[in-house]
Amino acid sequence: MASQKRIVAVANSKGGVGKSTLATNLAVEGALNGFEVLLVDTDPQASSAVFAATRDEHLPAFRVIQMSQPILHREIPKLCEPYNLVILDTGARETKTFRSALAAATSVLVPITPSAYDIWASEDVFALIDEIGSTRDLETHVVLNQVIPRTRVAQEALEALEELTEEVGAVLLNTRIHSRVAWKMAIGKGLSVTEFEPGGSAASELRALWQELGYSASL
């Protein structure tokens, strides 16, 4: 078992930023690294639950439950007892369930796509994180997701995010997740990118994200 229980909310009230893709891939990465993983799908679309249902039974396992009611902050202490990594896949709107997930978390990972609109929209989630985390230390990481390499848009988005994260006190990760076919193909097969193409660029990015979030192999 790892020495510290982590409850990570993959959260952004903006839809289409890749929350479920990152949540499911991190869940698999945790299982591959020896963690006992619980993935909680709070989104009514149930993307994470569907992903888990497509996985072959012989692949590294993690538990998935669906919970779209705003009771996570009360239930998580009991639910996560056997687990040392709990990942909360949140929905795409600020709801009572969204707030409950943030209240249950020990840290937040905010994926943001390189779009001015998405960066502006993310200010709402940072305000909510600040409100909920005002009574405790809620570490917040931001990852630039679905990046198209070597474009002016990506560079401008990075500069805007650097300014925003400094302003709100979040940590902008060095890892960039690029828009690659492997992410979509792997999901369709119920695989993480490290399982689908271990030597590929997407797998390298996922491992880099895992390491930069400060996770290590379970003891």
In short:
Helix 1 (19-32) packs across helix 2 (47-54), helix 3 crosses helix 4 (96-104) and helix 5 (116-132) runs parallel beside helix 6 (152-168). Strands 3-2-4-1-5-6-7 form a 7-stranded parallel sheet, with helices on both faces.
Report the C-alpha radius of gyration, rounded: 16 Å
Side-by-side strand order of the widest sheet: 3-2-4-1-5-6-7
Could you estimate the helical fraction of the residues in percent? Answer: 40-55%
What characteristic shape results from the CA principal axes?
globular
What is the annotated CATH architecture? 3-Layer(aba) Sandwich
Distance between the ends: 5 Å
Number of strands: 7
Largest β-sheet summary: 7 strands, parallel
β-sheet strand percentage: 15-25%
Contiguous runs where pLDDT drops below 50 for at least 5 residues: none
Plain-language structure description:
The protein has a 7-stranded parallel β-sheet with strand order 3-2-4-1-5-6-7, sandwiched between helices. By secondary structure, it is an alpha/beta fold. Helix 1 packs across helix 2 (47-54), helix 3 (72-79) crosses helix 4 and helix 5 packs parallel to helix 6. The chain has one domain (6-212): P-loop containing nucleotide triphosphate hydrolases (Rossmann fold), CATH 3.40.50.300. It is globular and about 45 Å long. Helix 5 (116-132) links the parallel strand 5 and strand 6 (139-147). Helix content is 44%, strand content 19%.
